Amino acid sequence: MNFDEITDLLRDKFGNGVIKAIENNGLQSALQIDPELIVQVCEELRDNNKTWFDFLSCLSGVDHGLEKNKFEIVYHLASIPYKQQLVLKTIKDHDRNSGTLPSFYSVSEVWRTAEWHEREAFDLFGIHFDGHPDLRRILLPDDWEGYPLRKDYQAAEEYKGIKIN
Fold first, then answer.
1. Torsion over CA of 119, 125, 131 and 134, rounded to 10 degrees?
2. β-strand pairing of 70-79 with 55-63
3. At residue 3, does pLDDT exceed 80?
4. Amino acid 165: pLDDT
């Protein structure tokens, strides 16, 4: 299926509201998906014999900065049998002063590879993934303070006597 056919398939299955925006720049097209439907959309793309996106090759977090107060998750999907790739994005507003972490639904039940990718996004961006089976730091020590890839991150001068800044 081509990009337009995948877009139509998702709209037919979930309604027009499932796709919040389309980025079709000719290089790598992406669909911005309603965050409340991301798990169901991923399951459909994996299980539908017309798409069969059987592999999540990458999942990344994005901090849109202090002015926008938005966080984004980017999903790079691959269909090995059909030799296709697809990028999905989902974006949520987040009040940094709320004392909570930005939160998205985990797709680790759809693709097991998401377990590692979501842990990395948690570790570096402080993004929580609801439903993740083992959400904990993966790169940084457990007692590390803050999330280094956030735009508002203030690095400490040192960690356990080691100068880091």
1. 30
2. antiparallel
3. yes
4. 72
